[in-house]
Amino acid sequence: MPINIPKKLPVREVLKQEKIFVMDEDRARTQDIRPLNILILNLMPEKERTELQLLRLLGNTPLQVNITFLRMATHQSKNVSEYHLDTFYTTFEKINDRRFDGMIITGAPIEHLEFEKVNYWEELTEVMEWTKHNVTSVLHICWGAQAALHYHYGVGKYELPKKSFGIYKHHLTDPTIKLVQGFDEVFNAPHSRHTTVLAEEIKNNESISLLSISEENAPFIIMSNDARNIMITGHLEYDATTLAEEYERDLSKGLDIGVPKNYFPNDNPGEQPPNTWRSHTHLLFSNWLNYYVYQQTPYEWK
């Protein structure tokens, strides 16, 4: 899927080097097709890294995608320049009269806070309420998934006795669901979180379904029964080295952090970790874009 992104977006050159099909506005206008409009609310601190991770995945299927990056106006980002935000991001007040075919809401390293204590929670809930009528399907990641489960469906989050950190095996509850079609019955995915949601709360909620669960009995893929909200509690979008970088970061801060589970060969941080989840990540994003965005969105929003 060629992705239409600004010419000067820094990650553009990396994507081109990786042979990801990117195009700019000039070329996009010459194609007589209806592109998908995808909004990305990037809540992660290192925004350029997350941009690259997500754009890789959105550029891997046959349709054209227009990307709009959204930030929270009520939050001051510390790890990215104001120039980058002003140039490549917009705010909710500037797009709340638009409709989007799909949306991604990322995670954020704020699990220790109650939702209502997050400084942009009111703005985020305004966005999530807006999606009910202005977005065909929303994909929520990690903390974003927990926030959506709390706001839309009243599902709580609970602190873990020890951080879930590493690569875990996951099982499907129903491999015939289109979102997970083509998945192996057991597959890997990265996790890096201090909180969780409970399987029983998901199963007892009539509005959502549990599609995948981890070897530690933690819900992983949850979907609303109308398919408008998809919640992924882990980080399928992570690169092979992301957990290693988080591990080194926490060690340098003197935090009590163990070696990521099932990640480094021989549990040796000196060895290069392999990416054992890439194919399922691409498949999930492709299935989402095809079955829940492209096949469902109106050709013309009214």
UniProtKB/TrEMBL annotation:
Entry-linked CDD domains: GATase1_HTS
Catalytic activity as recorded in UniProt: L-homoserine + acetyl-CoA = O-acetyl-L-homoserine + CoA
NCBIfam families, per the entry: metA (TIGR01001)
Family: Belongs to the MetA family.
Principal EC category: transferase
Keyword Ribosomal protein attached: no
Site (Important for acyl-CoA specificity): 111
PANTHER family: HOMOSERINE O-SUCCINYLTRANSFERASE (PTHR20919:SF0)
Amino acids binding substrate: 163, 192, 249
GO molecular function: homoserine O-acetyltransferase activity; homoserine O-succinyltransferase activity
Tree of life domain: Bacteria
Subcellular location: Cytoplasm
UniProt keyword terms in alphabetical order: Acyltransferase, Amino-acid biosynthesis, Cytoplasm, Methionine biosynthesis, Transferase
Job description of the protein: Transfers an acetyl group from acetyl-CoA to L-homoserine, forming acetyl-L-homoserine.
Protein name as annotated: Homoserine O-acetyltransferase
Enzyme Commission no: 2.3.1.31
Source organism (scientific name): Virgibacillus profundi
Catalytic site: 142, 235, 237
Listed SUPFAM superfamilies: Class I glutamine amidotransferase-like (SSF52317)
Any Gene Ontology biological process: L-methionine biosynthetic process from homoserine via O-succinyl-L-homoserine and cystathionine
Presence of the UniProt keyword Transcription in the record: no
Site (Important for substrate specificity): 192
Pfam families: HTS
One Gene Ontology CC term in the entry: cytoplasm
Pathway(s) of this molecule: Amino-acid biosynthesis; L-methionine biosynthesis via de novo pathway; O-acetyl-L-homoserine from L-homoserine: step 1/1
